[in-house]
Design brief:
The protein has about 270 residues and is an alpha+beta fold. About 25% of the residues lie in helices and about 25% in strands. Helix 1 runs parallel beside helix 6, helix 3 crosses helix 6 (about 195-215) and helix 5 (about 170-185) crosses helix 6 (about 195-215).
Length: about 270
């Protein structure tokens, strides 16, 4: 599933490609992608609307138009691309936004898990799926004091807590593993057992890892590409994720893989405590 760096990369690409484009009509080829409202009023509400900005909230894209906000979750393999209207429509293309300049924004999703919600502009935070999301880890308001407050109140394992979108949004499995490794913290440590020194180290690691990943265009582990069909490159910098039985870059011992809260988890048993 695309995580914060991948969704942010898609956002930046689409910001360049579609802002200022006016929708002439919308084609929905798979109705269940459209979660709210029903496909017919969804399409009708978008006719004549112009894309003004492409935003992001956690792992959700937030398309701001004249009067409405389109909230889109890519889930496992959703992707957007801009095409000339004369180009053949590929298999698994489920939603097409036809522009008045003979180009199209197409949403393709092999797994068909992606979702779209349409709300009156400004009301998108008052209802799911954006209603109860937690802190943005790359926003200025995400301070060490706030992070420490969240951690010290929880007696759960640190990894599932970092994955919980109600507290901190967008980190995801890859970047939790990388952040915990950089901070030298075992993924099964209890959150409120972390010392102030460890909390500071983890806080800095999360911001550092996510910032580097955004700069690299995200990680293309499976099928992720940005809005221009380009792969991310951060997978070349991963030190722990996907490196089972490889030597740890810090101590040389073998990296192990286990399951924590149902998620495949990579860690170094010697370096992470």
């Amino acid at each position: 599933m695309p995580e914060l760096p991948e969704v942010e990369t898609v956002r930046r690409t689409l910001q360049q490609l579609i802002v200022g484009k006016r929708i002439e009509r919308v084609t929905v080829r798979l109705a269940r992608i459209i979660q709210y409202p029903e496909p017919e009023p969804f399409c009708h509400a978008l006719i004549g609307q112009t894309f003004r900005e492409v935003g992001r909230r956690g792992k959700f894209l937030r398309f701001l138009l004249d009067d409405v906000s389109l909230v889109s979750h890519l889930r496992m393999e959703g992707r957007y691309g801009v095409y000339d209207s004369s180009e053949a429509v590929e298999t698994h293309t489920h939603v097409i936004f036809h522009f008045d300049d003979n180009t199209e924004l197409r949403y393709k999703d092999v797994r068909q898990f992606g979702t779209m919600h349409l709300f009156p502009l400004g009301s998108e935070f008052e209802r799911p799926p954006l209603l109860k999301l937690g802190q943005e880890p790359l926003d200025p308001g995400f301070t060490l004091a706030l992070f420490s407050k969240i951690m010290k109140k929880r007696s759960t394992k640190i990894k599932p807590l970092l994955l919980n979108q109600a507290y901190i949004v967008g980190i995801g499995n890859i970047y939790v593993d990388e952040s915990l490794f950089q901070a030298r913290i075992h993924p099964e440590r209890i959150a409120n057992s972390l010392t102030n020194v460890e909390l500071k180290r983890l806080y800095r690691s999360i911001i550092d890892i996510l910032t580097q990943a955004v700069e690299a265009g995200g990680s293309s582990i499976k099928s992720y590409v940005n809005g221009q069909g380009e792969m991310g490159m951060f997978q070349q910098q991963l030190l722990i994720y996907g490196r089972k039985q490889e030597p740890c870059s810090r101590c040389g011992g073998p990296i192990e893989k286990t399951v924590v809260a149902g998620r495949g988890t990579h860690y170094c048993p010697h370096c992470q405590h």
